[in-house]
């Protein structure tokens, strides 16, 4: 996986996911991504984990609780700007997003293992924990 930043869009998997999202104009793709992550709960492979973090962050942006906007998030921010006017909050997606974040941080996550082997693990984990806080509305 090509990774250049600890944020949810700072890797190739998330950027590919963001490109695919642009073909959608509703929440189906986000929901499908969250479901795919949760279906792989026994052993979550890194690509699914990275896509899950991107989906959660996109949902947070739709909810008005997004994180830092930067070059990595530009495509997502553009999509959110188009879709947000017709967005209706969905508690089921927020609940799934919370489970995805827990799974990504768990011992069953290859993405967590990869980050744990890097010098940037603490910063990555703090970013995911911060997503959890924003998801909880705090």
TrEMBL record:
Among InterPro entries, the record links this protein to: DUF4259
Instruction: Give the top-rank taxon of the lineage listed in the UniProt record for this protein.
Output: Bacteria
A Pfam family assignment: DUF4259
Name of this chain's protein: DUF4259 domain-containing protein
Source organism: Pseudoduganella flava
Classification from the root reads: Bacteria, Pseudomonadati, Pseudomonadota, Betaproteobacteria, Burkholderiales
């Amino acid at each position: 996986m090509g990774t250049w930043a600890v944020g949810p869009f700072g890797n190739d998997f998330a950027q590919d996911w963001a490109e695919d999202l642009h073909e959608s104009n509703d929440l189906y793709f986000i929901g499908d991504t969250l479901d795919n992550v949760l279906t792989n709960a026994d052993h979550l492979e890194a690509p699914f984990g990275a896509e899950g973090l991107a989906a959660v962050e996109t949902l947070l942006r739709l909810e008005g609780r997004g994180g830092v906007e930067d070059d990595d998030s530009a495509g997502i921010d553009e999509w959110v700007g188009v879709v947000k006017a017709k967005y209706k909050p969905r508690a089921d997606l927020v609940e799934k997003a919370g489970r995805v974040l827990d799974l990504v941080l768990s011992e069953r996550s290859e993405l967590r293992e990869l980050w744990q082997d890097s010098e940037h693990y603490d910063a990555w984990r703090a970013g995911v924990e911060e997503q959890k806080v924003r998801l909880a509305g705090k």
